[in-house]
Amino acid sequence: MNIIQTELPGVVILEPAVFGDNRGWFMESWSLAKMQQAGLNYDFVQDNHSYSAQKGVLRGIHFQNNPAAQAKLVRCARGAVLDVAVDLRKNSPTYKKWVAIELSAENKRQLLIPRGFGHGFITLTEDVEFLYKADNLYNASADRSIRYNDPELAIDWGIINPVVSEKDANAPFLRDSDCNFSLEG
Fold this sequence. Notes:
Layout: E1 2-5, E2 12-15, E3 18-21, E4 24-27, H1 32-37, E5 46-52, E6 58-64, E7 72-78, E8 80-87, E9 98-104, E10 110-113, E11 117-123, E12 128-134, E13 143-145, H2 166-169
Antiparallel strand pairs: 1-2, 2-10, 3-4, 5-12, 6-11, 6-13, 7-10, 7-12, 8-9, 8-11
């Protein structure tokens, strides 16, 4: 497994070793031992799987407030997405900064997003299947969103009119959010 640091401390790209032959390919998509050897200590407790039928579907920016915050390990099993992690930790030197990484079935990359970050993605193809590992269970009362087109974040999604849910279209801007993340916790 190759680990690539991004501009946001703690947000890393994981490139698995892929072994292929005339039959197809094989890869380890998750290995506790290899993660721990790399100093990435997460205890994932929930897997999620989403499907988006069309290109231009935007999901996010999602997170769960403390104490129910979640770290996520995400990957695209079919199609391609532009995956975004944004630092929502007040007092962080990278507060409000974001990274965008293409994840696809072809490149097999994964993105590890620690607690304290918001997450979203936009589909770059039709028929996208997206997989999430989370280190905390879903908690409806802690579930939050930030508006995907918040000018304070200025995320470049590469599309003007994405397909969004009513929840995401009506999410608050960061300045109006009750996001409770900080560097200290």
